[in-house]
Amino acid sequence: MTGDTLRIAMPKGRIYKKAAELFREAGLELPEDLDESRKLIIPIPELNMEFIMAKPVDVPTYVEYGVTDLGIVGKDVLAEDNRDVYELLDLGIARCRMSVIGLPDWQPSFHPRVATKYPNTASRYFRERGQQVEVIKLNGSIELAPLIGLADRIVDMVETGTTLRENGLVEMEKMFDITSRLIANRVSYRMKSDAVQALCDRLAACESVKS
Amino acid sequence: MSKPKVFEKPIGVTDYLPEAVERLRRIESNVLECMRRWGYREIITPTLEFYDTVGVASSTDDKKLFKLLDRWGTTLVMRSDMTAPIARVVASLLRNQPFPIRLSYHANVFRSIEEEAGRNSEFFQTGVELVGEGSPEADAEVIALAIASLKAAGVRKFRVAIGHAGFLNGLFEEALPGRVSDQESLKDRLFRRDYVGYREELRRLELSEKAVAELEGILRLRGGQEICEQALALSNSAETQGTIRYLCEVWDVLQAYDAVSDVLIDLTLTGDVNYYTGVTFEGYASDLGFPVLSGGRYDRLLGQFGRPAPATGFALKTNRILEYIAANGTAGGLEPHRILVVYTRAYREEALRYAATLRAKGDVSVTTMRVEEAEKEAVRAERASEYNTIVTFSDSGKEEHQA
Predict the structure, then answer these.
(1) What is the pTM for the complete model shown?
(2) Of B159, B287, B290, which has the smallest distance from its Cβ to A1's Cβ?
(3) Matching CATH number, A6-94+179-210, of 3.40.190.10, 3.30.1330.10, 1.10.3110.10, 3.40.50.150
(4) Chain B contacts of A195, Cβ < 8 Å?
(5) Quick one: pLDDT at residue B136?
(6) What is the CA radius of gyration of chain A?
(7) In this complex, how many residue pairs, one in chain A and one in chain B, have their CB atoms less than 8 Å apart?
């Protein structure tokens, strides 16, 4: 956060490519092939920026602690983590949804169990609907849970639904839409307000963001 | 949880080693001295309070309060801020003292937090409360003192954002008359700094295009005095315009204090809308991810203790400032000179008298006796890093050795 350079936490992988396209659409020329590089800190002096390549779930942490001014992260991570950051802009990229998923013959049970990578999101959702469920946290292959009887439903991100169909599962309810967001640290938002607002405005003018 | 290991302490509490304490004390005394010169007198209140009085009245979320039971089963809290205890004192012990009352404090406060580093469950606050004055003069005085305190603490580059808790209330009531739950949901999103959610919510409410544009526009209401003019144009309601005029007035007073260069108006700064009733503010230092001060007007609190009065105040987050000072090395005040006095038994009296004269003039002096003359060399070598000077008294006379 030194000087007037904007430090931005970028999610490695899938979202990064789309974010980089968006930056280019906004007229911010990024060096090619940043994602292939193994460097974790990438200075971009031409834009007065510095990218920190982060694991997506860690992006809100970096921003909350102020080690980066801004960050780009999916709404799924933001909803789960509940960090004290500004959610400035819906970037409209990496679009998918959070859903409740189960077997087609699902019946309400007396001891409902829900498996998920997003335990806070799932608990909150069912609580708001007046249902008490036991939430089981898993780290991957969530679709397995209803198939092998670990849980009767799962809460997970759905992009195309192919994985679900291939495993004979159905999307029961859509919980909310997910896109990537531009987030800002509380102090940077005020101390670097001009630079932050300028970037925000340039990104907001892009077609994919507006739609 | 397994039994703690001997070096462990509960999550969120900190040991301060001598260097840090010296810095902390310097910050604290500089800031309290600054507050004293503005006529604020220091007060100390107990660490424990009743849950039903101070606990309930405080602005801290109930689940973040440390609670315990006394031997009769009454719930106690460890104070989570100093504002509610001071309100209690002003309404009870000081009930016959006429307003305005100006008080300052430096205290440790307690919040139970999620298990994560960087958030403290015990931390220091240095602050003031100005009770019994409800004028823009009083708001500006407290903001100007907050700025002076930051400077006294040694924070060089900072900004203070000011807003008004009543502005959004008025504006939303105008746009959504009587639709309380919709207003609450908009406020909640602003409070959680979720601007994306705020815009989505605006679209969901099916307002006129003009109203949506105006309500979206408030996200940009940040800057200097011109913001007040822009905000005035947004509203026709007397309440909203009143809050803006009030803020303008505060700005004018701050200008007279010559304090506006570090201040920006930010009408999205809401603070806790259930607690603050008027002008609110927050201070930021560059290179620190968390705010270093927060404050505002809370005109309803004193009433809960039976002596209704307008009041405003702020708290500096002293340990955040300590982090800043440690990183930026700008603590004011000089390190004292440290002198080690080494003597052999025969020269004890002379050496101790010498140490006393050093202490009298403000130096730090530590004494140590050695049996053998020859040991003094070893002592010099061992302790050189801790002291500026090592003085030895022995058969070879008084020798000074600069480290």
Answers:
(1) 0.85
(2) B287
(3) 3.40.190.10
(4) none
(5) 96
(6) 19
(7) 55
